[in-house]
Amino acid sequence: MATKKQSSSSSPLKNVSAPKASVKDILQYFDMKFDSFMEYPPARQCFFTFLESTQNSEISLFLEQVEFFKSINELPNSSRRNRSFDVDEFSDQFLGAAGATLCESALLKACEIADNFIHDQAPNELNLKSDTKKKILDKIEKNRTYYGLESKNEYNWSGNSGKGKHISIVPFLDSTIFDDLESHILLSLKSNQFAPFLESEIFKEFIENQKIETLFMLATPRKAASPSSAIQATSDNIDFLFMLNNASSTSRSNSSTSTDSRDGSLAKSFVNSETLSVGEVKYLKSALLEYDQNLKWTLLTYSKEQEIYVMIGDHSCEQNFGRKDLMFYKSVTHYQYSSEKVFNALINFEFRKNYTNEPLVEGDFVKYHPKPSNQLGILDSELLETAVISESYEMKWPIRNREFILSCAATKSFTPENPKLETFYLFKKSTQNDVNETIRSKLKNVRGCCISALKVEPTSPTSCKATQVLFLDMKGLLTQNWGQKILTFKGGSKKKGSKTTLQSTPQQQLAQWIEKDSRLSLNSPLSDAILRTLAENQNII
Amino acid sequence: MGNIVVSPHDKEGQHHMMATPTSNNPNGGSAATAKNKSEITVLLLGAGESGKSTLFKQVQFFHGVGITHDQERIELIEIVRLNVLENAKNLVAATQHLNIPIEQPENRETAKLIINSLNTNDLEDPSWSKRLYSLWKDAGIQKAYENREKFQLYDSTEYLFENLDRICSDKYVPTVVDVIRTRTKTIGITDMKFDVGDGKQLRLVDVGGQRNERRKWIHFFNTVDAVVFLTSLSEFDLNLYEDNGYWRVKESLRVFNEVVNNALFYKVPFVLLFNKRDLFEKKIATKSFSKYFSGFNEAEEKNPVACIEYMTKLFLNEITEHPLDTVSVKTLSAIDHDNSKQVFEEVKQFIMTQQHRE
Q: Which GO terms describe its biological process (chain B) (predicted)?
């Protein structure tokens, strides 16, 4: 690939190895997620080893057996129905209605699980409430009797009068019979065993030997290392933007007086102005897009066409943003289209679709701020044409949905040697003030804070490199998903039951959009507004 | 329990108290050979919901262990809210089961949501505080609550519902009392260690109490230096969590019999703690105690001292093997910080004195 050559010279692809962190560091930056531990086989195995040490091996055995039981049911119908039961018409209808009766081997397995884990005095009896036991055993035993399967257990089920047809109602059994039980067991593991596990030597040994990529699968990057901010996420957002504001004020002519109280300066500053200024744009450009000069980015994952980096704050980050513990993500993607086409398509794409194919459910164009007409020259305080938009992200439980009110300004610049090669920029920041009352009333979700920048620079008349940097303040969840999805995509490992895998590469997706776009001109009011800022703001930086 | 853990790396330079199992193999051979008594292992035993883990949590707090990370508090938020939801679900299910209608239509709506879709994260929204409290105060739910001996309900129910305004808020941070009151069914084994002077360490072992959990006890019986057996005074009108048809007192007596007469504990100091004294005193004010004990004088049934004396006799009668002079009997309210501290201190002294004598 022609584009690839360029990237390898500029980024230390091969040199970035996963840093080996101590458990202390890992726990400082990541919150381990129970669900992910249960989903990732090596982590699950490690947790099961721990369970053995706390005398809870019956639980891991049970979970394994249930998994096996479910796998029997997932076999294609033709292969599992090697011998179907001789059922009468009534139950044929009855069972057939839901379409997924248990095959013999599955039913036998269900009985085995009941005998082994659920019955009183079972060899690996689980800790269950008697109602729960009764409910599930009732179903299983009636089926067992009905189909004439033998019970190892002398379980004298009331009301059963021998085999088969005399029982009027046979409870319907399907592959979900153990689901409630399983989630109950998982919940008690989570609340009772997971925290001690994270303190155990078994865990330490395991986690210290994991690659950073795996950490992103097993854990959520923690936004703040200081204890109070971990809890008070909302006030933290303000802190961060406040500091960002302080940092940025040095790079632009700032008319506000230093006597301002904290709140006062917030009111007049970066954070609170809907319109982006030249100074801010310059700052975002130098702080985010050109940050890679410091080579502090850690390569998270890469594919032929795309590299994803993460930056967990360092000294430089502290200087720029006032805090060390922030996480930024950067993706570099190469496209075989001109920078203009790609930029237009990305804008269109970004506000229609989303990074992960899932979270962005709607984007609304809110307001347009034209450039004040009486501005003289290009000063840092000069204001840019700015489009204000709202975005809402649907997050997975247990994270509440997020709303962003974003100010967006696009701009472009020419390469003097070749005026045809244009570099395009898009800058976004969250605005904290209330844009207007109608929007405000719509915001029932958590307000998110975001800073991001996009640069599309030409590498030839027909190819370009797009660099996107973002900081999303939502306890890392969105960005983590983002990284994780790409990891999943890269590994080609489709997780069972996951509905969100990228169907095509970023290039393919964009190509589709570019083709579509040229045919239909599908610009939304939103992307129109962004492109208008581009036209008005060109050559400003 | 186990949701409160000690972080070995956050206490500067001190000897760490570990709340996690100290080896992969708690019954490992080392203790048997190295009987130099630098470590005293104390088992907390008793049937389900007798208060073992509550006492264990209290001891952790006395020793500055317990919640050391804010992260742990965040995890505890979910556990507290799960308790709220579970209590609410159990109450709603009980109204159906006992055929007591929930009276107010809006409370019926709330009940529906609780059963079908409500999750812990929804409780961040303060409006749930009002809705759940209104449900709690509904005449139907209150009637079910009065009949709580007929189904399984946690002791913390009333406390949690009375504190909904704190819990249902995105600012909620669990307090120590919240943590003590929260019920988490212990599975398996958890332990912690702390210094008790003279270069000795006390290792306190907490275990699950339901029937299936008791099979696990045997694994560490041979390394024990003392047993603290808990039984709940307030369980006289309740049946088992794991067997709805079995009276809790009968189970406690049976378990006590098996443990106290176990040959492995013959030489071991043994403490019997009658827990939940606070709940018990409230309960006998409204419920008949003598109804459950044919041998008890009905005229004395409102007198807690007489009732406890009777219970003590019942339990001590079970002792056939263990020398009585190494058995100590006390009452306890494990949810009460001061009382727990005092009682545990006495227990510790008793064990140390017995050790010394030996």
A: adenylate cyclase-modulating G protein-coupled receptor signaling pathway
